[in-house]
């Protein structure tokens, strides 16, 4: 089994750590503790798929980190993340029971599913876009910030019932959907849960411009217009037929006159 501290000392000397912005030490069979120290410009950190059965700590030089992947590291107990620039945190598939996010006011993406939480406090940020806290069988309470309308929210397989969003909508964790407003549900209702996390989208409301007036014809006006067009059509057909008849009659007369003149000429020749 490898030691993370020794690995960092050998591959990232203290004099060079200020140059590192992306640190990936995932899937290296590390055990024990993890101490992130001296990486003053670190923005992205991935130490997933290890076996840190001890503590994971960050020094004050790690405050610029924006993205942390701490999934599948077999960690447990309580975790603290007081990072003002942290935007994405993945703690999934561990045994974490408590989470303190105070100070992480820019956190937008939180994945803490498949853990052992009883309560989640998300009051630290009003910028949440995606929150997945599913598969926490003992999770029975979640504290939300004043503004909470995530694009993706998944709380299946918890003991949570309904979660109110700040836009007055209510999310039903058991049905994995947003309930229509002014709708009450019974706890005895049997429901089917989707295998995919629900996507919550806000549909913008379209308002009519009060300065623009549009005249809409009434049904009677439409009927009168149709009748008028029908009459005009009938008259046009009648006139077309009359003109055709007169032209034909005139042609017959001319033909008859020509025949008479020809007969008179023939009689004279005889």
TrEMBL record:
InterPro entries cross-referenced by the UniProt entry: Leu-rich_rpt (IPR001611), LRR_dom_sf (IPR032675)
Positions of region (Disordered): 184-214
Keywords annotated in UniProt: Membrane, Transmembrane, Transmembrane helix
Transmembrane segments: 227-248
SUPFAM superfamilies with a match to the protein in the record: L domain-like
Name under which the protein is recorded: Uncharacterized protein
